[in-house]
Amino acid sequence: MTSSVSRRRALAGAATLGVGVPLLAACGDDSTAATDPVSPDPTSAAPTPEPTTATPPPSTGAGSGSAAGLVAAADVPVGGGVVLKADELVVTQPVAGEFKAFTALCTHQGCLVGSVTDGSIHCPCHDSLFSATDGSVESGPASAPLAAVAVTVVEGQVARA
């Protein structure tokens, strides 16, 4: 019984090996490269640390003598707000002297909200509107409110409470 390999089957096998071998190599153990200083593998590089997205919480000035915060209170307009992209927060001032903060990720599909005007927080992705006073949904497609974040004003800075 003779078996012949068709061209299609040979190409499929080569493609499988081309994809499978690197995947298997990625699952290999690098312990010998780290423990054998005599014959290092010149093709392997030291693993690079993954970047972190976590940032330390800002100082609220309590006991540190500093007034670092999220945003200067003077920079948050009355009836409006400021979107802090790096912190994924939106800080609002519904009425003079009253500051609120909410997560800035829309509850519809996780887009970053874009602006705060006329007492509403606007998501540019699908036009959801949230209340700048309590984060509740004013119009969808979002169906859940933005989560509140406790803030306080310390030495003219709006900071996490």
Individual helix count: 2
Radius of gyration, whole Å: 27 Å
What structural category characterises the helix and strand content? alpha+beta
User: Uncertain spans, ≥5 residues at pLDDT below 50?
Assistant: 31-37, 39-67
Shape: elongated
Mean pLDDT: 74
As an assembly, this protein is single chain
Distance between the ends: 80 Å
Largest sheet: 4 strands, antiparallel
What fraction strand?
A: 15-25%
- In total, the number of strands is 10
The secondary-structure element order is HHEEEEEEEEEE
* Helix percentage: 10-25%
Q: How are the strands of the largest sheet arranged?
A: 5-6-7-8
Task: Summarize the helices and strands and which ones pair or pack.
Elements: H1 7-26, H2 31-35, E1 71-72, E2 81-84, E3 89-95, E4 98-103, E5 115-117, E6 120-122, E7 129-131, E8 137-139, E9 151-154, E10 157-160
Antiparallel strand pairs: 1-10, 2-3, 3-4, 5-6, 6-7, 7-8, 9-10
Task: Write structural notes for this entry.
The protein is of the alpha+beta class. The protein contains 2 helices and 10 strands, in the order H-H-E-E-E-E-E-E-E-E-E-E. The chain has helices at 7-26, 31-35; strands at 71-72, 81-84, 89-95, 98-103, 115-117, 120-122, 129-131, 137-139, 151-154, 157-160. The protein has a 4-stranded antiparallel beta sheet with strand order 5-6-7-8, with no helix packed on it. The protein has a 3-stranded antiparallel beta sheet with strand order 1-10-9, with no helix packed on it. The protein has a 3-stranded antiparallel beta sheet with strand order 2-3-4, with no helix packed on it. The longest helix is centred in the N-terminal third of the chain and has 20 residues, at 7-26. The radius of gyration is 27 Å and the shape is elongated. The N and C termini lie far apart (80 Å). 20% of the residues are buried. Residues 31-37 and 39-67 have low confidence and may be disordered.
